[in-house]
Amino acid sequence: MDSSLNAQLRELEETHINFEVRSSSEELDKILADEFGEIGNSGIKYDKKDFLELYVVLSDMALH
Question: How many domains, in total, are found in the chain?
């Protein structure tokens, strides 16, 4: 993968796990693709609509 693209993707992922961004539906709408999906620690699958409606805030997030 191109190092510039890799850096851009990493930056977007770090933005996505930022508490201020995850608690703002407007900010999440800007950065999440319409096809976005994530599975939480509980095993529940969230899509973009869930995030925007429920203001999913995960305080214990880290990149692996």
Answer: 1
Assigned domain for 47 exists: yes
Cβ atoms of 23 and 57 within 8 Å: the answer is yes
Q: Phi-psi bin for 18: left (phi > 0), alpha (psi -120 to 50), beta?
A: beta
Render pLDDT for 55-64 as a digit per residue (tens, 0 to 9): 655 544 454 5
Q: For the residues of 2-64, what is the DSSP string, one character each? A: -HHHHHHHHHHHHHHT-HHHHT-HHHHHHHS-TT-EEE-TTS-EEEHHHHHHHT---SS----
Specify the pTM: 0.56
